[in-house]
Design goal:
This protein is an all-alpha fold. The chain has 22 helices and no strands.
């Protein structure tokens, strides 16, 4: 067992310094596309080199640890979703699916409700699917079309989709984060959902109010003509997703259906055109694909060198300070929240963060008399909050690639995640919702 060490976290600090720092410097110099001057997959290379230097053992064993992280099941699954999402978005757009969907939506939704409607639809789909990645892959291209048709800021519409997707990821009973949180804390999914919902609902309502005022000035010209059949790929993707079909099969089916519609309705659309559109979608995912693989490898090295163990132990020691008289549930809840949030920053994966910090969170919950349903709720909430605003997290990287915007520029426009984090902090401060715990504990 590798001894816990803070030095193992230095590669992450170096990566963030290079990635964020270079963007801020170029921005101060007035350079256009400041955060694209040094791309994240390049900025992470010195950090990986540092991780290899800090590691112990033979060079071959260090590289093997890195490669095992790159080939982690979660990382490979994300990469496949990236590719299929890019292919689906490219083909659907080429056959007129995005334009038809946007024009159809604008013909039935009042301009002032465009953004709230987009948030609600995304949240519903994500809750039904249990995955934020599949939801973003399906709806982000539509958000881009909405921004172009309504003159709303592209960053705002894209951020709305990410917020709705994280709402569903956080609450869905089939989400991997929910499963991980409830299993590590030993509570029922339904009880965790009720506890979670009481915190998420105020954040969602505030988000809807904010989005209503943001879209009140939307300029919507008369929607152009559209053919309903061109909307079919998106409808099929959403129906299959809600039905619980595997997200990769959902996206593959969307690619096939969109291609078939293009071949049937557009005389100049051929199998060769279809192939080129799919490949164009693949190439549009190149940057996030490479970055995800490299982050997976670097994260594995930090974990192997005891960086995450040091982090968990440090938070545990801080929570123990002050003696037993200060061991209140509120202190325990803050410790649990901090543990999963900081772990998520290091791993860039909310499910992995919950699994890593779940054991410590359960120990803290028992020591501070925090109800397991409460600890499971806080684990899920703070992991989703961090994941939703992490510029190198999978959700923002996917959305930014589909919308062709900077992931750092997106962070400030994901209002739901920020409001959810604030609502959770307030709930800890005021001890809300105490009544919910009593109600859940009462026999039916």
């Amino acid at each position: 067992m590798k001894k816990a060490s803070p030095l193992a976290l230095l590669p992450l600090a170096l990566f963030l310094a290079l990635f964020v720092g270079s963007g801020l410097w170029y921005q101060s110099e007035g350079v256009d596309f400041a955060f694209y001057q040094i791309s994240a997959p390049v900025a992470i290379l010195p950090a990986i080199f540092l991780a290899v230097l800090l590691a112990t053992g033979s060079l071959n064993s260090r590289i093997e640890t890195f490669i095992n992280g790159v080939g982690d099941n979660t990382i490979i699954t994300m990469v496949l979703i990236y590719l299929l999402a890019g292919g689906f978005a490219s083909v659907a757009k080429a056959v007129g699916g995005v334009d038809a969907t946007v024009n159809f939506g604008l013909s039935i939704i009042p301009p002032s409700l465009v953004l709230p409607g987009l948030f609600v639809i995304t949240a519903f789909v994500a809750t039904s699917m249990g995955t934020s990645m599949g939801t973003i892959a399906a709806i982000a291209p539509i958000a881009v079309g909405v921004a172009e048709a309504t003159e709303l800021p592209l960053l705002l519409t894209t951020g709305t989709v990410i917020g709705g997707a994280m709402f569903g990821d956080n609450l869905s009973i089939i989400s991997d984060t929910t499963i991980a949180a409830t299993r590590t804390q030993g509570c029922d999914m339904r009880d965790k959902f009720k506890m979670n919902f009481m915190i998420a609902l105020p954040a969602a309502l505030l988000t809807l109010i904010w989005l209503y005022f943001q879209s009140s000035h939307a300029v919507v010209d008369a929607p152009k003509d559209y053919e309903l059949i061109r909307i079919l790929p998106y409808v099929a993707v959403l129906v299959l997703a809600v039905a619980g079909v595997n997200v990769m099969l959902v996206l593959f089916s969307g690619i096939v259906l969109a291609g078939a519609i293009g071949l049937g309705l557009q005389p100049d659309y051929s199998v060769a055109s279809w192939s080129k559109d799919i490949y164009a979608g693949y190439t549009s995912m190149q940057e996030i694909l490479i970055l995800s693989l490299l982050i997976g490898g670097m994260g594995a090295m930090m974990k192997a060198q005891g960086g995450l163990d040091w982090l968990a132990n440090t938070i545990d020691r801080i929570s123990r300070l002050g003696g037993r008289e200060k061991h209140t549930p509120r202190t325990g809840e803050l410790s649990i929240s901090a543990t999963v949030a900081i772990t998520n920053i290091c791993t860039a994966n909310n499910t992995v963060a919950i699994l890593i910090s779940g054991g410590l969170a359960k120990d803290i919950a028992e020591r501070y008399q925090v109800d397991p349903r409460r600890s499971a709720s806080l684990l899920d909430i703070f992991s989703c909050v961090v994941q939703g605003v992490l510029p190198y997290g999978a959700q923002i990287l996917l959305a930014s690639s589909l919308a062709k915007v900077s992931p750092l520029d997106l962070v400030g426009n994901i209002h739901y995640c920020w409001l959810l984090g604030l609502a959770a902090i307030v709930s800890i401060a005021i001890g809300y919702p105490k009544g919910a715990l009593k109600a859940l504990s009462s026999p039916a």
